[in-house]
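We now fix the convention by which a protein and its fold are recorded. The integers have meaning only within a learned vocabulary of local backbone shapes. A complete example follows; check for yourself that the lines match position by position.
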Amino acid sequence: MTVCVVSIFLSAAPITAPALAAETAGCADTSAPLSIEEQRLAGAVPQEIVRRAGFDSVASQFARVLCGTTSYRQAELVVTAHGQRLWRRAVDRAQGRGVPGGDLSRDDDRPLYWARLGMTGALRQWRPAFDLTDAGRKALLDRLERGSRGQDAIRFPAARGVKRVLVTGFDPFTLDRDIRISNPSGATALALDGTTVRTDAGLVRIETAVFPVRWGDFADGMVERALRPHLPQADLFTTVSQGRVGRFDIERFNGAWRGGFPDNENVSSTGPIPVSDPAGQPQWTVTTLPYRDIVAASTGRFPVRDNTQVTEIPAGATAPVVRPDGPTEGSTARSGSGGDYLSNEIAYRATLLRDRLRLDIPGGHVHTPVLQFGATNTDPATGTITDPEFVRNRLDIIAQVRSIILVAATATPARS
């Protein structure tokens, strides 16, 4: 049975929409509701993005193979293979391997995001030939998410003298404001995954993964499940997200608070960051990245700031106040240096995991500049999905994140 699945997987030739509809008509329940994110895929801009990247047949191929499965185990194999295949295809495209598959620049992270949603939508509306519980479908969706985000493909070399760096990025977000949006942190993850860089201080190996902009996945422990097996092997880690216009920030303090800004499913969440063992949850965690070295280095065209500002409720008080130089003793967090959204939360979770595992390694959060379109292409209603300045900005941000990582790695001793 496994051989049959692999054979089908490898023979994934393009399939037209009418042919797909006929071939999968018996196993698709189009009345099953799609997620908010999946619903956006039907728009003209997402369709143009996947088409111009050559990713427009990804979901249809996946749906066709999934339709042919006859057992849950076979479905697991298909979901795993196709999820991992999408991640590897996106990484290869970003790193210049194989044909580009379209005229979008290779550094573009958006095809991965939108193609994944096509696959999760197909899986959500799949009507199998065997009994499938809601829990079973959710497990398959989780497996697809992990594989297509590189979360189960992190592999550090065992060789001595190699500095191992773990980097995370994010999906595009605020898509109802501008559906064309790209996220330079996700693009950076694709550009750097599995790369080895020779520096004056030795070899640096970078492994990456991408995370969703969804409160629920974080509350369910996705960050900890993905990072826990690998942080003990790492010499350094940094979570990366898109932040403020025109500058990089090394965020000094991370706060244990959700500020409620809507996520990609238009869900809000306000309150303490939900973690295991909340009784022992600190209000603040601190970066251990070598921020002084990073700020002092010449890493690219954007300025880099050591950001220490937080918002706290001081001990004994009830109203929040802004502190430019970090939290005071006994205060309650309301905003970390990196804010109160999921960028702050992934930094908080990763550094809390570092501390709970008692790891003495550098780690923290880097906020990139906001990725901007060209000056004549700012209106999402009339603008194009890409332009030369947009591409240049993204490439410059990717290159500068890489430089920041190498500065931090150079300042970090390799493990024996």
